[in-house]
Structure formats: structure tokens, C-alpha cells
Amino acid sequence: MDLLSKYSDQLIDAFWTTVQLTAFSAVGALILGTILAAMRVSPIPVARGVGAAYVTIFRNTPLTLIIIFCSFGLFQTMGVKLAPEQSPTFFEQNNFRLAVLGLSIYTAAFVCESLRSGINTVHVGQAEAGRSLGLTFSQNLRLIVLPQAFRAVTAPLGSVLIALTKNTTIASVIGVAEASLLMKEMIENEAAIFVVGGIFALGFVILTLPMGLLFGYLSKRFEVAR
Amino acid sequence: MSNSATVLYDAPGPKAKNLYRLISVAVALALLGIGYLVYAALDDKGQLTAAKWEPFTESTSWTTYLIPGIRGTLVAAAVSIVFALILGAILGIGRLSDHRPVRWVAGGIVELFRAIPVLILMIFSYQLFAEYEVFKSKYLALAAVIVGLTLYNGSVIAEIVRAGINSLPRGQSEAAKALGMRKGQVMRTILLPQAVTAMLPAIISQMVVALKDSALGYLIGYVEVVRSGQQLGAFYGNYLPALIVVAIIMIILNYTLTVVATRVEKRLRAARKGGGPQGAAPELPAVSVPGMDITDKRL
């Protein structure tokens, strides 16, 4: 208990950073993943190839490597800066945004795959009916197939999001002050390792468990009646 | 992958073909443009000089850095996948037990370790082993990586096992019971062998996850391929090329495993069509759109 009161501010800050990382990366990954999924089912061979290559590359690369690459490669070697340089918290902000970039790029590959399998579950008749009404590919995808696909993949997208929440811990590799970085610090400085471990385990259970329940509920709610 | 006969668009007529060609060219041009921008930026920072890439043609940089790193990754992944399979089988069968307490305990363990990030598990077990001197300091990081990966992947595999056994028709276990088999016999000789074939693709996909996650060892000081690549980059002053080479190594390793998983699944599906074990796999969508594989990909 002493530990909790001693570190309460830091704990809240750290988990808030985790939540922020998750939220921003989720938005990025969802947008990018949807575009990629559309590319992968499009009639343009080149676009299909690009989408497939993207998924193969980023799904098979460890996230640790991608995030290190964002920091060492993009920032230190190539000089890519994602925050105003004169700002006093430049390094913090820049690392945070680089981590969001890395997480989005990585997660987008999984979002794309989930969506694609969702598109797969949409009944053939739906798309056929759309086509017979004279809808073009993009109209068909936008108005008929994707809305149903999104409903079908609510649960898989939920697990992608939970995985993303857990993956944000890897952002500590470039010094983003989220939960696992604080845990490393606390576990080295405090004698009670089981208590520290318990606090962080509980923190993540609190973050991910309601998410799982929510997405389970949503997927039942949005289920396409067939 | 043929262009005709998909659900989303008609086979293109002459007009559409022209349009597709136009868009193809536009996409290709955009790609080339991005490629050129990247090339120019790399060139500008002097990342494309021979000096930056030469270390990868020398055997010493492989023998001192990359090969020990690859070995570290493979050892951690292989050991933890073996332990995870054992743990997963125990927990998965535990979740199907007739005794409620066993079910609850197994379920609790599975849900807990699936909810906690692997990195948190690794940091915790590292400190735990260091504090109580369970392992020699040389093996501390390796042990922590293996424990973290085993607990997480074991829990995921437990779910795969459970789903695999549940997907078998009830008649299988009923018939076995009618023959007078005991519970253990039913599980061992009837259910598991059939379920394993159905679970194989998912288990191989999980191996890819274990292999990728072994890179988390980087954060607790385990020398795996990302760490060794980074050391190489520090030594030769070529971070960017080193990280790219490491990425290529990892992609090749993981992609090979993914291809194996897809092959295995295809074979299983073909075997089923040919009158193999019926209904031994989870139902897969019957409709397939070009370029879509429906392997069950878990994160």
C-alpha cells in the first residue's frame, strides 16, 4: 500500500501514456489498415501487390525492430522529426510520436488481415446484388461490403486492439514513459517485486479485460443476421 | 489469382481494362516516386555508400554479431515453443475437465497470462530470478525470455487446443465411451490426435508469434538478432543498414514458417475432401475471394 501511495502519480501518468499510445495508434492503424484491405481486394493488380507486400513485410517483422527503426533509423540517421524542435519537451514528444508511428504501421497489417477475412464472410449475393444494381467497385465496397465486413470483424478487431494495448509496452525501448518503463524502474528500486509485478499485471488486466468484454458484447450486437 | 470471377467486381470490359491500366500506371508511378524520395533521402544522408554496407559482406561481422544473434533468437523461440506446447496442452485439457475447480484454475491462468503484456512478464521473471538467484547470471535474460514467451504462448495454445477439441463432433467421444474407454483414454487416443491435425495451422502461426516476440528480449538485455544488429550498427556506424538487414533476416524466418502453415492447412483441407477425418477442423468460410487466404491468424 505504501508503494501505491508513493508512486500513485507516476503510476497514473504511466498508464495514461499507455492509454494515449493505444488510442492514437488504434486510429492510425484502423485508417491505414482499411486502405490496405481495400487495396488488397481491388481489381488493380499493382495495388493488390503493394498491399500484399506491406502485410508480408510488417507482419513478419518484430515490433521491437520497427520501433527501434523509427528511432535510430528515421530520427537519428535520417533526421525525421515529428515534433517542434524548439519545444522544451522535444525528445519526449518526438519519441512518443515515433512510437505511435511504429505501432500504427505494425498494427495496420493485422487490421488489414482481419478486415480481409471479414470481407470474406460477407455473402456473395450481397456483392452480386450490388453489382447488378450497377455499383462500381468502390461503391460496392463502401456501401455494401465494408459495412457488413466491419460488423463481422468486431471481435477480431477487438483482439487486435487488445494486442495493441499490450504492445505499447514495447515503446519503452525508445524511452517513452509508459507502464513497462515505470515497472522496470520500480522493480529495480523496490524490494517488493511481487507487489510491483502485481500492480502492473492488475493495471493491464483492468485495461484489457473490459475491452474484451465490450468487444464481445458489440460483436453480438452488430452480428449480421443471416 | 485470376482477374475474372470475383464477388466484388465484374470481369473488366475494354473500357474498364483501360481504366485499370491507367490506375496501375498511376500506382506504379506513385511507388516509384516514393522509392525515389527514399533513395534521395538515404543518399543525402550518405547511407548508400559502399562503406555502410560492406560489413555485411565480411565474414567477421556475421560470425561476431549476426550469427550469435540469430542463434539467440532461435534458441529462445524453439525452447519456449516446446514448453508452450506442453503448458498449452495441460491448460487446454484442464479447461475441458469434468471437475469445476480444475476448469476454473486453468481458465484463470489462461485469461491472466493472455491479458498481461509479454514484456511485463519478462521484466518480472528477470527480476525474480535475479533476486532469488535461480539461474546463473549468464542465463538470466534467456530464462526470463523463455518464461515470458512460454506463459503467454502456452495460454494462447491452450485456447487453440480447447477450440480444436471442441470442434470435433460429439459422436467421437460418445463412441469411445461406448467402447468402454476411460476419460484419459478418450482424450489421448481419440480426441487429441484428431484435434492436433485441425489445430496445426494455428499452432504454426503461434510459432511465428513466439519467434517475433523473442525480440522483446532486447529490452531485458538478451542478445538476440535485433540486439546483435544494433551492436553491429554501433560498431560500424551503420545503424540503418544493420537494422534493415536484421529485418530481412526476420522476415525470411517468419515468412518461411507462415508458408509452412499455409501449406499444412491446404494439405489438411485436401485430405478432408478426400475422405480423411470428417469435420476435424473448424468451419471455414466457403467463399473465397482471389488473393485471400483464410488461415486463422491470431495475434
Automatic annotation (TrEMBL), chain A:
TM ranges: 20-39, 51-75, 95-112, 191-218
ABC transmembrane type-1 domain mapped to chain residues: 15-215
Location in the cell: Cell membrane
Keyword vocabulary terms for this entry: Amino-acid transport, Cell membrane, Membrane, Transmembrane, Transmembrane helix, Transport
Membrane topology note: Multi-pass membrane protein
SUPFAM superfamilies on file: MetI-like (SSF161098)
A GO cellular component annotation in the UniProt record: ATP-binding cassette (ABC) transporter complex
PANTHER family: AMINO-ACID ABC TRANSPORTER PERMEASE PROTEIN YHDX-RELATED, MEMBRANE COMPONENT OF AMINO ACID ABC TRANSPORTER
Record-given protein name: Putative glutamate transporter
Organism lineage: Bacteria, Bacillati, Actinomycetota, Actinomycetes, Mycobacteriales
Automatic annotation (TrEMBL), chain B:
Subcellular location: Cell membrane
PROSITE patterns tied to this protein: ABC_TM1
Keyword Transmembrane: yes
Main subcellular location: membrane
Keywords, sorted A to Z: Cell membrane, Membrane, Transmembrane, Transmembrane helix, Transport
Membrane-spanning segments: 20-42, 62-92, 104-127, 139-165, 186-209, 239-262
GO molecular function, one term: transmembrane transporter activity
Keyword Membrane: yes
Pfam families, per database record: BPD_transp_1
InterPro entries from the UniProt entry: AA_ABC_transptr_permease_3TM, ArtM/GltK/GlnP/TcyL/YhdX-like, MetI-like, MetI-like_sf
Cellular component terms per the entry's GO annotation: ATP-binding cassette (ABC) transporter complex
Protein origin, superkingdom: Bacteria
Xref: CDD domains: TM_PBP2
Membrane topology of the entry: Multi-pass membrane protein
An annotated GO BP: amino acid transport
Protein family (similarity comment): Belongs to the binding-protein-dependent transport system permease family.
Name of the protein in question: Amino acid ABC transporter membrane protein 2, PAAT family
Source taxonomy: Bacteria, Bacillati, Actinomycetota, Actinomycetes, Mycobacteriales
